Amino acid sequence: MYTGGGPSLLKAAPFACTGVCELHLTLTKLCVISTYCTANYTIKLAGGLSGAMYWTAFYPADTVKSLQQGTQKYANSSFITIFRDVLKNDGFKALYRGWGLTVTRAIPSNAVLFATYELVTRMLKDV
Predict the structure, then answer these.
(1) Degrees (nearest 5) of the Cα angle 19, 25, 27?
(2) How far is the CA of 51 from the CAs of 47, 80, 97, in angstroms?
(3) pLDDT tens for residues 69-98?
(4) pTM, two decimal places
(5) What letter does residue 109 receive in the DSSP assignment?
């Protein structure tokens, strides 16, 4: 019933911790080249880029989680066992199989997510 719970946490916890940091680091870099730091499109661009960075860094954990949850072969295996097996048998590129579609989806969804986050944060400061 809880197969893949560990890898799911391994994937989700860093997003909760790093997503906002990546957003603000990206915004800082964009503000150096643009005077429109608070413009809506700048925040959306930073949000989209932070989502792409997150998925690039943590996609292997998602691959392992998917294998653990979706295949009988790995149903009772640990994260490390699956990770090593994939590297040994299929190579490093196998950990990123499907990454392109995920990042294509992540860019717009994170752009909206972080633009909403910034909007709500600004609205709450005014309350």
Answers:
(1) 100
(2) 6, 25, 18
(3) 888 999 889 999 999 999 999 999 999 999
(4) 0.72
(5) H
